[in-house]
Amino acid sequence: MLRSAGLFILALCVLAACTLAIAMRPATAKSVVADIDRHLIAITTDFSGQDVLIFGAVDQPGDIIMAMWGPQGDVQVHHKERVAGIWVNREAVTFGNVPSFYGIASSRPLYELLAPDVLDRYQLGVGRLRLKTLGADAPNVADFRSALIRERQRGNLYADKVGRVTFVGDTLFRANLRLPSTVPTGKFLIEVYLARDGQIVDAQTIPLVISKVGFGADIYRFANNNGFAYGVVAVIVALLAGWLAHLMFRRR
Known about the structure:
Layout: H1 2-23, E1 32-36, E2 40-43, E3 50-58, E4 63-69, E5 72-83, E6 86-99, E7 102-106, H2 110-113, H3 116-122, E8 132-133, H4 141-154, E9 163-164, E10 166-168, E11 172-179, E12 186-196, E13 199-212, H5 215-225, H6 227-251
Parallel strand pairs: 2-13, 7-9
Antiparallel strand pairs: 1-3, 3-11, 4-7, 4-12, 5-6, 6-8, 10-11, 12-13
Helix pairs in contact: 5-6
């Protein structure tokens, strides 16, 4: 509780500084200034998820939309069918540049702030992510796209609802975006948009790095850099564990 209170007080101080800076800005300065409470999140063996505090200030009243993107990569989605009582993979579709994580928050419902074509342009909302296929499109590619989104949402990697951006007065804002325990590592981007009169008038991108640390990180790096050796060690450890368990039960 003390740590959370301290972070909130620090955020308010930074927000006050942002407001002062915006008030004294030249004509070409930005209309929105934002930051996060930490730019590096360390994942240890007891990591159970964490909130990212995003805060900032605007020069004049408006609405704020935030989108957090995880590292992108190719993802293959399979369609399984039951054949002779066994589930087998049949059709498969590969999507390129799929974000491994996607979270979103706004000060008001998205449909009240921007027109559908603007929401599509900025990919604001899980249903508006441009998940493009690699190679020839399958006739039922929309079903594969929906299955991919559902799977990511079940793993808490894609937002199933829009979070809330809260304003403190007319110019200061803050929001929390939740990172689950299964969040991938890598470089994340948080995009903060200022919307007025149905248009995006300014934006800022904030980097965030999520990295494994400690003994778990050492094992992870060893497994990725020495796949064969890691497999051999894993088998030996499993055999030793089984042998020790056998000895213990024999003595009983």
